[in-house]
Amino acid sequence: MKNNMIEEIEKYARENDIPIMQKDGIDFMCNYIKEHGVKSILEIGTAIGYSSIKMALVNDNISVVTVERDEERYNEAIKNINKFGLEDRIKVHLCDALDFKIDEKFDLIFIDAAKAQYIKFFEKYKVNLNKNGVIISDNLLFHGFVENIEQVRSKNLRQLVKKLIKYRKFLEENTEFKTTFYEIGDGIAVSKKEE
Ligand SMILES: C[S@@+](CC[C@H](N)C(=O)[O-])C[C@H]1O[C@@H](n2cnc3c(N)ncnc32)[C@H](O)[C@@H]1O
Question: How far apart are CA 56 and CA 5, in angstroms?
């Protein structure tokens, strides 16, 4: 039953060009959550609620706060979350994540929104991490463009790829956090605060 409902969200995303996490990427996230006993998650970039629902379904102790700036996607996310009866554990906020204010601390912060703003998201939300918490970012490979920028013809797309290359360098050179990169899904980075 739940599997059918998940497949329906995947189908809706395909048919309406909504970018949601790739299957192996979200499986990696769910395994990470399970293995590390993650209980609280802040997600930047809800889209239609796919990843927040998948993460909340790992077990009943998990709560998710998630932020989306697009009203249509926000409404679709609310609808999907209600269908799963997860409205008590997934709180969606309609606003720009760069303006969103929250004091709460989280075990995991998941960055999956505007790629050009990843460094800003990272810097803004790192104070919201619990001790031993991690920041996970998606799209580090960006469909393989990051490693083959010379093949990118569109100027706008090249600008975006350059921003992701800059973000990768920012993570590699960051002395506050140690980052491990995984070539899974669209490229995942797990950043853990140095002791
Ligand atoms: C890749 S999608 C998120 C996919 C979702 N995490 C999933 O896997 O189901 C990125 C979403 O972030 C939203 N977004 C982009 N920049 C944002 C910002 N500054 N604040 C809030 N949402 C943003 C976009 O509207 C889009 O729906």
Answer: 14
CA distance 152 to 174: 28
Write out residues in the chain with pLDDT < 50, as ranges.
Answer: none
**Which domain range does residue 144 map to?**
2-193
Task: For the chain, give percent helix, strand, coil, nearest 5.
Answer: 45, 20, 35
Domain count, the chain: 1
Structure tokens at 162: 């350059």
CB of 164 closer than 8 Å to CB of 146:
yes
For ligand 1, atom 26: residue with the closest CA: 47
Is residue 186 lining ligand 1, measured as CB closer than 6 Å? no
| CATH number reported for the structural domain that contains residue 106 in this entry | 3.40.50.150
| 3 state SS for 131-186 | EEEEEEECCCCCCCCCCCHHHCCCHHHHHHHHHHHHHHHHHHHCCCEEEEEECCCC
Share of the chain above pLDDT 90, in %: 83
CA distance 178 to 191: 5
pLDDT at 101: 96
Distance in Å, CA 111 to ligand 1 centroid: 9
